[in-house]
Amino acid sequence: MAGCMNQPQPAEAVIAAGIEGPLLVVATGETVARFAPAWAANCGPNRGGYRVLVIRADDPSEAEQIIAEATLLAAAGIVAVGDDTVLATATAAGQSLAVPVVTFPVGAVRD
After folding, report:
1. Cα–Cα distances in Å, from 18 out to 23, 43, 47, 82, 101?
2. pLDDT tens readout for residues 81-110
3. CA angle 71, 24, 54 (to 5 degrees)
């Protein structure tokens, strides 16, 4: 995956994965606080725009929220940024929707 772990760039991941259309970025609140400015600079309307969904890493039912949000957005793909739990939850949601999921592991970031 393109992008450095100090500044994950979902736009680079989308380009590398060939995802065209709206993008759902899934992360915990702490991760969003750390990286949202960089995402805003790199995920503009040129690829269909994006929406950020804040989830709790310790709640497996968050997959249902990801599915609902991705459906509402008509997301062409999901980018998950966070620890293994966030990545696994977003991956399960993406598989349920049959959309590509790009993951960026970022330590054990918790709210």
Report:
1. 12, 14, 10, 21, 11
2. 988 999 999 999 999 999 999 998 886 444
3. 100
